[in-house]
Amino acid sequence: MKAYQNSINIKLKSTAILLFIIVLIQACSSTKYIADYQSIVKKVTIDSVDAKFEEQAYNYVQKDIRPASKLSINVPMYNLFNTKDGRYKTSDIKPFGTPPAILDSTLVEISRTQIQKFLKSKGYRQAEVTSAIKVADKKAEIVFSAKPGPAYFIEKLSDSIPNANIRNLYESNKAKITHLHKGMQYDEDSLTYEREQIYRIMKENGYFYFLRPYVNFDVYGAEASSKTNKMDLNLNVTDPANGPHKQFNIGYTHLLIAPNPDGLPDSARYKLSKDTLNGIIYTDFSKRYRRNPIVRYDFLKQGDLYDIRNENLTYDRLYELNVFKNVKIDYFRRDSTSNKINAIILLTPQKVMSNRVEGEIPFNGGTVGFTLGNTYTNNNIFRGAERFELQVKGGLQSRIGNGAKVFSDIYQRDFSISASISVPRLMIPFYNPVLGGNGMPHTTFATSYIYALQKDVSVRRIFINSITYDWFETKSKLHSFTPLNFEYRFGNLDTSKVDAITRFNNLYYSSLLDRKDLTLGMKYTYTLNADKLNQLRTFVYLRAGMDIAGNMLQGISKLTGAKHDPANNDPAKILGLPFNQYTRPEVDIRWYKHLGGERQFIARLNTGLAYAYGNSILTGIPFEKQFFAGGSNGLRAWQARTIGPGNYNRQVLASDEVRKAVFGLDQLGTLRIETNFEYRFTVARKFFGATLKGAAFVDAGNIWNIRRGESITLEYPELDELTVFKLSKLAKQIAIGTGVGLRYDVQYFVFRFDVGLKLKDPQFLGSDQWVISKFLSGARDFKNSYNSTHGPDTYRFIQYNFGIGMPF
């Protein structure tokens, strides 16, 4: 088996090296595929443009003559698939990469003209731009030389708004919206912004028929022949020819639901409802939806002044119900003299039910397995856009090696079933909050059952029920509150099959896996800027949460007058079971820095603390509430749950029999500190019909226990010294890994593959922690030595991670 694995590794490395050489050769030979009269643009330069406008000016260079980045593989990829007989193909073009930038004098002239217009729009009214082309060995360089001349500044601002109502409206909002002021450099973008802001204000204050062309500017002194670089600006807001602008109110709303996803047939017009309730006529031809859950998110209320914000809000919320594939809003007037407009909201249903099958194959040195899951979704189970989701998931993990067949030694089995119903409003007894202005609120009822078997070690069964409220304070601020979270936990440690377990019985794993208890608590999570995660911009993301359990049950226990001493193994009980009491805060904060184009840098800090007290002072934090490190979303050079706590090294378990008994058990802690730094960029824009993106990253962190006794055993008392967090030992207990990754972006999904390399491994001590030196020299001897003292665990310098979606 080892020989087979080594053969695979050699083949993979050889293939990767061969592909790299092919791409490198292709990158250097693009000119041989073009005709003798053609040239490839290798460089574009724009001279004498103000530094703050350089990037914008370059954007006016036509894309077909912009050279690719020296580090990009777009052109090499295109050359690899779209050349034949020494020439570029003219048909049967494969969608891989992008063609090289071939010189075109027409595009050069268009670019020159556009750059000149851009400079004039920025206040350089006398700007002139010339172009020059240098060609050598079929390689071209384009130079755009600018003579911008003096910048023009606004000396006088005035306005002409004959409609008194509009003038008052503009004056009352001017301080908040305007970018125009005396002494500023003339900029047409500022004029466009002013026009857009006036249009927005008008549409928010009842002026339904107002159009952008009603806003225009008179510019004086802007001629290039002017001897002064000063100019005057006058704002005009004109009235239509048939009279002054009017404000309009909402009349009634006719809400129509089509019978099926094909839309509304013409015959349906003769079957419309005539009944009006609260200004809304509701007609559901599909017979699928109850009235109130749908009309609740119609914000076009009868009698209200027309406001485009309410129209957009209605669009957003009706789409977010996730039961309509199309939402269309139209308006009409009964007569030309009325100041009322009636709304027609046409909703087209989408497919209600769906089924999704997912699977993955986690593997590591010495283990292989799979998980398979099926998720059934019904987005309208009670005819009120309630989302019902049923998920069944199972998997197993098997040891391999030493000639054993795959899945002949299965050491871990998992099964779970969960169901949830999410209602698009906050269902709070005796209270009906009006929310939804910034995002769709939800109330979610969830239940799940989890079964986990660790061969010859334990069986865990967990039953969880919860109610959660989610609502938006603003579009960027999300609150999630779980007032009720009930967990019933039943563990069973198997000490009958393997004698080693008996000697292992004092380890903290035994207390975690064998406990039988219940949890009643609440959770709260605050999320900031989650709506910006898919945007290329600079911002800070925050997700902070608190999980608290046991305080209510502790109070009930005291009211009963029963005397208990949890510190001496006499915890209070509810329904015959001890209850957990703990607090668990967790923070995930990230800084996203946009570096221009599609380049982005992310710095992340993720930390959490789990502290048991009161009734759990002796038993500690439940297994599922503890922290772990490693995996595709954390320290990517380690497999999930295989690092820490602290300097923990399984070599301390001196018996092979004990190590085999605990093989595969999660390495957990009550404190996590983790940082990630990642640089993201685009590798190829066209790669098998999608965009191929890349990443380079450095991950650092670990988990620890926060107090003594959480890992102490009679047999291995030194574990406390290795695993308990001490600030003075932080540098010696941090794990560091690095790596690179690829992201295959198909717009709706991102398939991710990361390769992580261990740099510093805290399970070792002193200079031995820097395992990168072993990887570069003496890797085989190091791994053989490790395997002989840690078996059946094996050491891997490199970890492969597959995932869907970005890691963070």
Give the helices and strands, then pairings.
Blueprint: H1 2-27, E1 40-47, H2 54-58, H3 74-81, E2 83-84, E3 87-88, H4 105-121, E4 128-136, E5 139-147, E6 153-160, H5 164-177, H6 188-204, E7 215-220, E8 230-237, E9 249-257, E10 276-277, E11 280-284, H7 291-295, H8 308-320, E12 324-332, E13 340-349, E14 353-360, E15 363-364, E16 367-378, E17 387-399, E18 410-423, E19 442-454, E20 458-474, E21 477-493, H9 499-504, H10 508-513, E22 516-528, E23 539-549, H11 551-559, E24 573-574, E25 577-578, E26 582-594, E27 600-609, E28 611-612, H12 656-661, E29 671-687, E30 690-704, H13 719-723, H14 730-733, E31 735-745, E32 750-760, H15 772-776, H16 779-790, E33 798-804
Parallel strand pairs: 1-5, 6-8, 9-11, 9-13
Antiparallel strand pairs: 2-3, 4-5, 7-8, 10-11, 12-13, 14-16, 15-16, 16-17, 17-18, 18-19, 19-20, 20-21, 21-22, 22-23, 23-26, 24-25, 26-27, 26-28, 27-29, 29-30, 30-31, 31-32, 32-33
InterPro entries: Bac_surfAg_D15, D15-like
Subcellular location: Membrane
Domain Bacterial surface antigen (D15): 580-764
